[in-house]
Amino acid sequence: MRRHCIVCGEPLLAEPIYVCRNMPAVAQDLPTKDNVAQDRAIDLEFCQCSACGLVQFNGEPVPYYKDSTRAGERSEVLIALRRKQYKHLIETYDLQGKKILEIGAGKGGFLKTLTEMTEYGVHGYGVEYNEGFVKIARAKEHVNVVQGDPENADTVVAGGPFDAVVSFAYPARLLDPNAMMQCASRNLVPGGVCLFMVPSLEHLLKPGGFYDLVRDHIAYYSEDTLRFLLQKNGFDVLEHGETAQLYIYAIARKRVPLDLHTYWADVEPLAEQLRSFVRERTQNGGKLAVWCAGHFAFTVLSISGVGGEVSYIIDNAEFKKGRFAPGSHVPIFGPEHYQLEPVDTILILGPLYVDELVDEIREKCSPNVEVATMDWRGLRTIKP
Q1: How far apart are CA 98 and CA 71, in angstroms?
Q2: What is the CB neighbour count within 10 angstroms for residue 9?
Q3: Which of these three, 209, 235, 254, is where a domain ends?
Q4: How far, in Å, are 57, 66, 338 from residue 62 at the CA level?
Q5: What angle, rounded to 10 degrees, do the helices at 295-304 and 267-282 form?
Q6: Using one digit for the tens of pLDDT, what is the confidence trace for 153-202?
Q7: Torsional sign, CA 144, 67, 246, 226
Q8: What is the CATH number of the domain that holds 94?
Q9: Helix (H, G, I), strand (E, B) or coil at 311
């Protein structure tokens, strides 16, 4: 029996939340006349993770759990549902003419539906664990399915990377859904999207929902736990909801690292503006002090490299007086120090308190000293 969650690894609750007694041992690979006498109903312990809340069976999976076994792939109902899902995915996320990979492609029926939607010019690919299913998919449905292990994070599917990944109920079958999500991410282009559909815990909690339990599904996801699984593995959820009553779905995008060079492109221009201002105010013997010994001032002085040209920092906090600014090593004094060492310019580096500090400077230092301030918009002087 497993004692830890298949998604987050934290302990399951000490006691099962329900024991499903006399349950069928399988939903596929049905008994034959040769072995039906050996078939036995089993008890299944339904457990919940103490941390992420995922509801899951704690026993061994069915022997064929990696095989995407499903009936009715080409039934009218499922063809219509897949067409609706594919249409939304393609049109919403600009996938016309792009490459889409199905993970857990089974015998190729759902992928066949995708390739029949020729109006979108999509190129469909599939990966399936069961070699026999792969042969059927290629020979009968004439779709591009290859054999591979989607529960292995290192699996790379030929033809990739892909612009989108889809998977229908397959994540719920796996002992290691994290590995499958990492496999999906490995085979996606940066910023690629995915559509995952899984049996719904919410459905099971409705009247009659118990009878849709099946051992083949190791876990039953809620919208929250499905979102957690995706986010844990580097995806940002774009939309989620219920589909076909029995299932929930999520569409997510492979997370792209933030390009902070773009967001913080103003850092060096602002630093150079400060350097120019300090040089101009001190080049002919002028003296400049900074008001505010806070993190903003420490960072500005340190990255700009002007600490050696700043006479001192003024701050009212008693515990900061007599200390030095980290990085730039500018000494810190109280306002009274101005009378001992007057300066020509005081630069406020505390953008939240400018108006208040200007009045304090005029009162405690001098009404005639030049006052300037700097924030993300740049440097400006303040008229008396």
Answers
A1: 28
A2: 11
A3: 254
A4: 11, 9, 80
A5: 80
A6: 999 999 999 999 999 999 999 999 999 999 999 999 999 999 999 999 99
A7: negative
A8: 3.40.50.150
A9: coil
